[in-house]
Amino acid sequence: MPVYKFRTFEEARQALWHDGLDQRYLERLAKLWAFSARLKQPAFPPGVYKYRDIADAARARDRWAGQESQASDF
């Protein structure tokens, strides 16, 4: 990305790629984020988990993978 030098604040202000944030832009951005959150849920439930051994952790991971594949088969 190139570095630009400006002699005045007005020159820098004119070089901005947008005129400012309007309400429609923020609403569209919020809808986009909500849509993307619905498309892809996390592959595992949030939180910290403790397991007795590696086999127990592997079983939990397999359960989560099964739930994820069922959710995407609509």
Brief descriptors of the model:
3 helices; mainly alpha; elongated
What does this molecule look like?
The protein has 3 helices and no strands. With 74 residues, it is mostly helical. The chain has one domain (9-71). The longest helix has 18 residues, at 54-71. The model has no long low-confidence stretch (mean pLDDT 82).
Topology readout:
Elements: H1 9-14, H2 23-39, H3 54-71
> Total number of β-strand segments?
0
The total domain count is 1
Uncertain segments:
none
* Strand/helix succession: HHH
**What is the mean predicted local confidence, pLDDT?**
82
Report the sheet with the most strands, covering strand number, pairing sense and barrel closure. none
Beta-strand share of residues? under 5%
Q: Structural class of the secondary elements?
A: mainly alpha
Instruction: Give the C-alpha Rg.
Output: 23 Å
Total DSSP helices: 3
Query: What level of helicity do the residues show?
Result: 55-70%
How far apart the termini lie comes to 43 Å
Global outline? elongated
Structure at a glance:
With 74 residues, the chain is mainly alpha-helical. The protein is built from three helices and no strands.
